[in-house]
Design brief:
The chain has 679 residues and is of the alpha+beta class. Helix 14 packs across helix 15 and helix 16 (511-517) crosses helix 17.
């Protein structure tokens, strides 16, 4: 294999892994690798793309922030993107960032730097108009987040109204679960005989994404504010200190551990101090955020596609403990990949009690030479799946034996296979119950078809009973069969009714969600959305040739081949036929199909409810965006037009009139979408 081919294949492999880990962390609140492992993958991909710019694709994870927002909540477009931060894993990398700041500021060395604690929670944006809280959203993918307004309103520290406020102010900060409350919740869980929560970060993220705000309120979340997004009519600000003073004056909670320094040795001392005190606060921290204090310096340095250049996160090193490795077992995933994992004597490390850890693949187990019965070093960074670093060989007994990877699938008994050059081992039996169950769980997950009521036990019961052999069978389930299988008391039909309602709702999920749910290897949310928009329906995608798919801007050869191979497979064709037969939506709405970019560079605000051409305001916004325009939530001087629907608030109308911005109805919106200008 040539070096060019090797780079291309490795970049595609890294992209797929990073997308999967991003989805697990941001969308499912269930991280699959440690911070250090994730950062190593991302850095390797950045190095390849730096060396080979021809391999950079539009939806590369190196350009992305977070993950696609869930379909469970209404989408919210951020007028000012919520970006991520680059990481410094040690002081050498932190000093390298400082030198880049010196270079970017034309050799200036006397500048102030602000240090803040890096909270381990969920980033949110809270929007106030005329002093009233009107919207709260998660970060999502940085451009579009999830509307969690009703849940954020239950957090005591966040005021519903603020006095002496700008016309519009967007507050950004971190929702978190205090450690003391996390411990209290786990005591309650154990008392009820239920599994304890994994860690405060995941619990906070899961709490803010509840459909029932009363559940969020019961969790007793907290909040720190630390940044501003869009501000209209506010005071002039020149420094980070001005930002914090405004936040405090508005009644928003600001963390007291914020310091400004001009000597960079003081910055490093602050980081060292909080490394030693990381468990002292009643909230989890995993590092220190270091920023330029002068706002004009920030404007000068700007940002990359995913992160500001003027800030960096100094990450605390992961924590390590020793414990006993009780056994090594394997799990079978939806693609058939068989992954070994360690069963540990429970140990408290990185902020939670750990009893299992990943071992990745057969080669990793052999390289580390960890064996059942060993005392092993376990590493964990706060909120992620722990890793077995290696054995303490001095503690190993004489009768210790090296662990052998199983020859046969533990779920179905089929002989396992490993292809030369591939580090992974697979069960190739498509009827394997473990493969079927994990495939269905992926299909029904929140980031795919979002079907509630299909937990592991229910999926296992459906598969073992023969009612479901693939995802297509889910939409053929009937009430009587489910009652017989799932409800011991036939008079209690609520469980079954809720499940059937959720399945019915899933029939109407957008085509990108169907593509993600099908589990096509290497196909992430961005690529799925791009392919859906370009082809319009699943039949055209299935019939497209490899060259046609690969010709799409942003779709590389690895993704294209994976998509083409998937739809040429006879088993997958049968699944698609079942989905179609059972009424699953397999096309896109008019506003979601790629259209001529007639609105490129234009900002169109939509307010009120629409009742004619568009079913919802969100569909109108999608139509605007699909034509190259922007559809922010607020009117500003750059707004091209305000589309006024029924029951609209007066504030946007007043603002548009004061700025001389055209106010149009739904009929004129249609003209705008067709021509790119008002008649």
């Amino acid at each position: 294999m040539s070096e060019d081919d090797s780079d291309s294949d490795r970049a595609a492999e890294l992209s797929a892994q990073i997308r999967a880990h991003n989805e697990a962390y941001h969308s499912r609140d269930n991280p699959s690798v440690s911070d250090a492992e994730f950062d190593a993958l991302l850095r390797e991909l950045i190095a390849i793309e730096t060396r080979r710019p021809d391999l950079v694709v539009e939806d590369s994870p190196t350009r992305a922030v977070g993950a696609q927002p869930s379909q469970m909540f209404a989408p919210v477009e951020h007028d000012v993107p919520m970006m991520s931060l680059e990481n410094a894993m040690d002081f050498e990398e932190l000093e390298a960032w400082h030198e880049r700041m010196v270079k970017g500021l034309d050799g200036l060395r006397e500048f102030r730097v602000v240090c803040e604690l890096k909270f381990d929670g969920l980033a949110v944006s809270i929007r106030y108009e005329n002093g009233k809280l009107v919207q709260a959203a998660t970060r999502g993918n940085g451009r579009v987040g999830e509307d969690v307004t009703h849940n954020v309103l239950t957090i005591d520290q966040i005021p519903h109204r603020i006095g002496n406020a700008p016309d519009l102010v967007e507050v950004r900060g971190e929702v978190y679960l205090p450690v003391s409350r996390f411990e209290e919740l786990n005591r309650e869980q154990i008392k009820k005989g239920e599994a304890p929560y994994v860690n405060p970060r995941n619990t906070a993220a899961g709490s803010i994404r509840q459909k029932d705000p009363s559940v969020t309120k019961d969790r007793k979340l907290s909040f720190w504010s630390y940044q501003l997004g869009q501000v209209i009519g506010g005071p002039e600000m020149t420094s980070s200190n001005d930002t914090f003073q405004l936040l405090q004056s508005l009644g928003l909670p600001v963390n007291p551990e914020v310091r400004e320094y001009s000597d960079f040795d003081d910055v490093k001392a602050f980081c060292e101090l909080w490394m030693s005190k990381r468990h002292d606060p009643d909230y989890e921290i995993d590092g220190v955020v270091v920023k330029l204090a002068d706002l004009s310096h920030r404007d000068l340095l700007g940002s990359t596609s995913r992160a500001p250049r003027w800030a960096i996160a100094f990450k605390f090193p992961p924590e390590e403990k020793t414990t006993r490795l009780l056994d090594i077992d394997v799990s079978v995933g939806r693609t058939g990949r068989v992954t070994p994992f360690a069963i540990l004597e429970p140990v408290f490390v990185g902020g939670s009690t750990v009893s299992m850890a990943t071992l990745h693949n057969e080669d990793q187990v052999a390289a580390k030479d960890v064996r059942p019965g060993d005392v092993v070093v376990v590493r964990k960074a706060g909120d992620v799946i722990p890793e077995v670093v290696g054995p303490v060989t001095s503690e190993r007994t004489r009768d210790s034996e090296a662990w052998r990877f199983p020859l046969y699938c533990p779920a179905c008994g089929s002989r396992l296979e490993r292809v030369a050059g591939d580090a992974n081992t697979y069960c190739v039996n498509r009827a394997c119950s473990a493969r079927v169950e994990t495939g269905i769980s992926h299909f029904t997950s929140r980031n795919a078809m979002d079907i509630e009521g299909l937990g592991e036990r229910t999926v296992g019961a459906l598969v073992s009973s023969g009612l479901v052999s693939d995802v297509g069978d889910l939409f053929a389930l009937n009430k009587n069969a489910l009652l017989d299988l799932l409800v011991s008391d036939s008079s209690n039909e609520t469980l079954v009714n809720n499940l059937l309602n959720s399945i019915d709702q899933a029939r109407l999920r957008p085509l990108p969600n169907v593509l993600i749910g099908l589990g096509i290897e290497h196909l992430g949310p961005s690529a799925a959305e791009l392919i859906a928009r370009k082809f319009g329906n699943l039949e055209r995608i299935a019939n497209a040739g490899l060259d046609e798919i690969e010709s799409l801007d942003g779709i590389g050869p690895v993704i294209a081949k994976s998509v083409a191979d998937f739809f040429s497979d006879s088993h997958n064709k049968l699944v698609i036929e079942k989905l179609q037969l059972n009424g699953v939506r397999l096309d896109v709405l008019e506003g979601e199909v790629d259209a001529p970019q007639v609105l490129e560079g234009k900002s169109v605000v939509v307010t009120g409810s629409l009742e004619g051409w568009f079913v919802t305001r969100d569909e109108a916004k999608k139509a605007i965006i699909s034509r190259g325009g922007k559809s922010p939530s607020a009117v500003s001087r750059s707004t091209y037009a305000l589309v006024l629907g029924a029951d609209a608030g007066q504030s946007k109308v007043d603002r548009a009139e004061s700025l001389g911005i055209p106010i149009v109805g739904e009929a004129q919106l249609r003209t705008l979408l067709e021509r790119g200008e008002l008649s």
